[in-house]
């Protein structure tokens, strides 16, 4: 049996016997760590080298030779707003191309002055933070703001309130505003000034128009405001700097309220009034309103009595008239003719929509408006009588080869949609003769503008034979924009 004094020595010997193995394991780990560090360092060097090489390659491209001012202008054009806001290119795109482009984009405030946000329940916090950074990059450039949403509920209103609270801190730089504006956001706009604001298009939620019909009290703090769209608000509640307005749009006004708008706005150039009505028929003009500055009038008349609006105005500067009306034909044509003769205006564009007119009434009206260059006629399409719509007589009156003094000698564009009671040969003969039309003047031949665009859309089947298609192709090759089709399919 071993001595007790020998036991510690035995244990110590065992420990010493294991030490070399542990030291070997530590050396292996250290070696692996050193190798990993070396590999990572090499990879980092390769990445840096690749970046350097890429920059050298990019420096050889033609775009790299452009001055920063040219690149800035290109970026600005690319970022311009389009009709389809979903396809809008933002300056964030340039930040992912290269460092040089990112530096230019991040330091150009004009690239950040357009703010188009589609409000949703998701990503609310990230959008607010992005908006704050966006506004900082916009600096003091004028802000074009458009907020859209697919929903009108409490969650959307809450999101809009937060967004508007962020935007209103930069109210002194607002240039245009286009958005849904619930009553809950009105308080955010109080006690703010909008010295750069020129255009506003706001509307209340559709479900709350009858409850909250008063627009926000902000317009008198905008000394440059001239373009206003307040569709959806009650007219008596609208307070505007009427004297500085040049464009105005609203809806659901009576004839008397429309006349008030014209009287209050002596500098108005363009007025769009939707769904105009009159509680009673006005047999004759109560008071003739002289309004010399108006150049564009776009009205939608609900009932026949609303035609009295045209009977109560005199518009010597009128250049464009659009009327959407589904009532009795003779009344409208008579009112337009009377307005033109009374005003003595140089009317260039006339558009009549959703209106089933008698051809004789239309011809009688157009004879008094020889200055027209653009004519658009859209009927409702339920016409069955051959004296209505596009008839042989109408086409004949427009054709200079059939009349020495044709109807509308200055016509350059004709659009028609509705029933067609005229043969295709007569339409093509009109197109050919009008395309190279020369009118006889008292002192010799006077070349007048030819018909550049002819678009006929039949609401019933309308056949275009092969020989007619060849004529259409020839006219298109000569530079005329011509189309003859039906709603059942393009037959040209």
From TrEMBL:
SUPFAM superfamilies named among the record's database cross-references: RNI-like (SSF52047)
Superkingdom field: Eukaryota
InterPro entries named among the record's database cross-references: LRR_dom_sf (IPR032675)
Protein name: Uncharacterized protein
Classification of source organism: Eukaryota, Fungi, Dikarya, Basidiomycota, Agaricomycotina
């Amino acid at each position: 049996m071993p001595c007790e004094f020998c036991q510690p020595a035995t244990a110590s010997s065992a420990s010493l016997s294991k030490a070399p193995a542990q030291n070997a394991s530590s050396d292996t780990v250290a070696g692996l760590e050193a190798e990993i560090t070396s590999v990572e360092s090499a990879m980092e060097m390769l990445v840096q080298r690749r970046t350097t090489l890429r920059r050298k390659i990019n420096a050889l491209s033609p775009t790299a030779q452009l001055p920063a001012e040219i690149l800035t202008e290109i970026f600005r054009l690319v970022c311009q707003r389009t009709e389809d806001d979903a396809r809008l290119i933002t300056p964030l795109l340039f930040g992912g191309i290269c460092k040089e482009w990112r530096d230019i984009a991040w330091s150009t405030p004009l690239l950040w002055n357009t703010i188009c946000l589609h409000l949703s329940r998701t990503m609310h916090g990230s959008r607010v933070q992005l908006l704050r950074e966006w506004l900082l990059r916009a600096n003091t450039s004028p802000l074009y703001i458009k907020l859209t949403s697919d929903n009108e509920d409490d969650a959307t209103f809450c999101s809009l309130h937060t967004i508007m609270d962020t935007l209103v801190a930069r109210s002194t730089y607002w240039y245009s505003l286009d958005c849904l504006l619930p009553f809950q956001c009105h308080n955010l706009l109080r006690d703010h000034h909008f010295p750069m604001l020129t255009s506003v298009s706001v509307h209340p939620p559709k479900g709350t128009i009858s409850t909250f019909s008063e627009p926000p009290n902000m317009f008198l703090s905008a000394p440059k405001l001239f373009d206003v769209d307040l569709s959806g608000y009650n007219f008596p509640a609208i307070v505007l700097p009427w004297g500085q307005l040049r464009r105005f749009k609203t809806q659901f006004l009576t004839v008397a309220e429309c006349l008030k708008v014209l009287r209050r706005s002596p500098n108005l150039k363009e007025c769009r009034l939707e769904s105009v009505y009159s509680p009673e028929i006005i047999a004759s003009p109560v008071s003739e309103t002289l309004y010399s500055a108006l150049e564009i009038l776009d009205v939608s008349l609900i009932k026949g009595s609303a035609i009295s609006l045209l009977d109560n105005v005199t518009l010597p500067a009128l250049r464009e008239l659009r009327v959407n009306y589904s009532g009795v034909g003779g009344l409208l044509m008579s009112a337009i003719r009377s307005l033109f003769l009374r005003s003595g205006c140089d009317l260039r564009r006339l558009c009549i929509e959703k209106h089933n007119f008698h051809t004789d009434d239309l011809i009688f009206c157009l004879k008094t408006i020889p200055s027209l260059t653009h004519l658009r006629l859209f009927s409702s399409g339920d016409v069955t009588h051959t004296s209505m719509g596009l008839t042989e007589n109408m086409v004949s009156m427009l054709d200079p080869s059939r009349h020495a003094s044709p109807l509308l000698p200055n016509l350059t564009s004709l659009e028609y949609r509705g029933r067609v009671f005229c043969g295709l040969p007569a339409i093509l003969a009109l197109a050919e003769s009008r395309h190279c039309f020369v009118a006889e003047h008292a002192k010799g031949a006077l070349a007048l503008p030819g018909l550049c665009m002819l678009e006929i859309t039949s609401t019933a089947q309308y056949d275009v034979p092969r020989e007619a298609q060849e004529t259409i192709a020839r006219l298109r090759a000569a530079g005329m924009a011509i189309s003859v089709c039906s709603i059942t399919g393009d037959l040209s």
